[in-house]
Amino acid sequence: MPRQLRIEYPGAIYHVMNRGDRREPIFHDDFDRKRFVVTLSEACVKTDWQVHAYCLMNNHFHLVMETPDANLVAGMRWFLSTYTARFNRRHKQFGHLFSGRYKSLIVDGSGSGYLRTVCDYVHLNPVRAKLLPPEKKLRDFAWSSWPEYLKPPEQRPRWLRVDRLLGELHIPKDSLAGREELENYLEVRRAQEDGGELKNVRRGWCLGGETFRQELLEQARAVVGESRVSKLKIETEEQNEFNLK
């Protein structure tokens, strides 16, 4: 099977996912999770990445990030290899931690609702995995960016960017009232979740409108040629229509 094509350009937004090798855990405890977030923070300092959402599950992670400097591949190489080395050293293990190459889906960040959709998908992961009982709020799951969204700006990591999501939800200010509106929005969204609307967030190679897809295909054609791009065209045609309500 050919390797997934990596399209890089300044300002690109990606939904990045990776699982443990043989679907084994990539976190054994909260110390590992904290170390993963610390390593992500260091990667953001090195690369200038801006994170829009993240979620740490038992054997995989989700990350929505923006790359101002078109450096997804180099940054992910450092990030995953560094966390793997730290994990292996702590647990006295050797070899691969992650299963093959990470999956990266390019997201349309033009304000058309696609970034909101992918961030919802990431933040609702604990619900789909049944890690939150009905009486608990999403903010009670500690290992995602959602609790950070609900904190005042001075208490958040500097690399977590919340303004784009607020903008797509038409919440004008990062204020207490704005954050309450944000939390109410996702709790309502959680109650409506059936998995159907979000299925394209984990498949294909891009998430966006037809104009966005065609622009990406043109960029890919200039780099790898028509034969490789034809495979992306087929994937695009086979994707189900995505209704962004």
Description:
This protein has 245 residues and is an alpha+beta fold. The chain has a single domain (12-216), classed as Transposase IS200-like (Alpha-Beta Plaits, 2-Layer Sandwich). Helix content is 44%, strand content 12%. It has helices spanning 30-47, 72-91, 114-123, 125-128, 146-149, 163-168, 176-192, 210-224, 226-238; strands spanning 12-19, 50-56, 60-67, 103-107, 206-207. Strands 2-3-1-4-5 form a 5-stranded mixed β-sheet, with helices on both faces. A hairpin with a 3-residue loop joins strand 2 (50-56) and strand 3. Helix 1 (30-47) runs antiparallel to helix 2 and helix 8 (210-224) packs antiparallel against helix 9 (226-238). The longest helix has 20 residues, at 72-91.
Structure at a glance:
By secondary structure, the chain is of the alpha+beta class. The protein has 9 helices and 5 strands, in the order βαββαβαααααβαα. α1 (30-47) runs antiparallel to α2 (72-91) and α8 (210-224) packs antiparallel against α9.
Mean pLDDT: 87
Report the sheet with the most strands, covering strand number, pairing sense and barrel closure.
5 strands, mixed
Give a count of the beta strands, DSSP E runs of length 2 or more: 5
Whole-number count of domains: 1
As for the CATH topology, it is Alpha-Beta Plaits
Overall outline: globular
In DSSP terms, counting alpha (H) and pi (I) runs of 4 or more, how many helices?
A: 9
Instruction: List the uncertain runs.
Output: 236-245
N-to-C order of helices and strands: EHEEHEHHHHHEHH
The CA-CA distance between the termini, in Å, is 35 Å
Rg, nearest Å:
18 Å
- At the fourth level of CATH, the homologous superfamily is Transposase IS200-like
